[in-house]
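Morning F.,

Quick status update on the modeling queue. The single chain you submitted on Monday has been processed. Sequence for confirmation:
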Amino acid sequence: MEIRTAFCPRCGAPSGGDGLCDRCRVAGTRWLECAPRAIHISCPTCGAIRHGQVWTDSEKEREEIAPALALSAVRLHPEVRRPTFQVTVRELSGNRSIAEVEVSGHLFGEQVRDRCTLELVWQKEQCTRCNRIAGSYHEGVVQVRATGRRLTGRELREAEQIANEIESTHQAEGDRLSFISDLRVTRDGLDIVVGSQAIGLGIAQAIAARLGGRYSTHPKLVGEKAGRPIYRVTYLVRLFPYLRGDVVRVQDTDLEVVSVEGHHLRAVDLQTGRTRTVRENEEKRLIGHSSEAIDALVAYIDGDVIGLLDPETGQTLVVSRPGWLNVRAGDQVRALRDGDRLVVLG
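Structure tokens below.
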């Protein structure tokens, strides 16, 4: 090996090869760079953070965000190994902070240490979702109605819960524009105003499946953007006329509804205890719901009939004894009033 290649041409120290020694290479390398400022943009309404053109939800406080924001402005030479950082933040005002970043590591086998100072800017900007909500923007309305009746309090509560669950699922998947902007009870049922067609369809499908019903979509052209038509969709959910627990009279037979399946009801014959199917188009009369049943005292039993003491009138009403009912005089049974008669439920 020639002598001139074994020593650093700058300082004369051994270089271990051609060119500068490691110390002189480090001295001639700009290994740490800091941008003069780092900008953080957040929504003042929901706290979401903007990265480029994308908004993401965040629950972090400013103290948690500041170190990472400062480090986002730091650039290291690709040959720096095992870097460590220490960030100190000093608040100047509500929208300004000063961050000092101290960096240490190894470059070309030499230990290096340096620091830089930058400004942190805290900007507020309303996110796309909050801007749309504030502007009453919506892409659809889910209308929940019941066929031939009004929604019950339970159905209203469950439909609202289902809608909120679907919204939470979309939000958790990062679809921030799938939101519920309004939810109101009307004389006809429940209206759910939604920010996207995706969440509208999801809510309509879930309510129809879980509460028993059908849904239909009704798009309406409301404008055009960049040459593409813009539609607003109404999702009409029609719940079935009968609920689980409803007691209906079909051809002189009292039935308690177990479930609604397509165009059929599955119901229990309250006289025999057997389950049967009732077609949707069969004539039916609603007596009431099993939750409205009253307690009636069994006054006597005589073969296939029993005498029930009407708790309201004090009179004894004679009813057919259901084949499945095992009671004795003095027991109480649950019964549903139907005009001047009582229907035994159990």
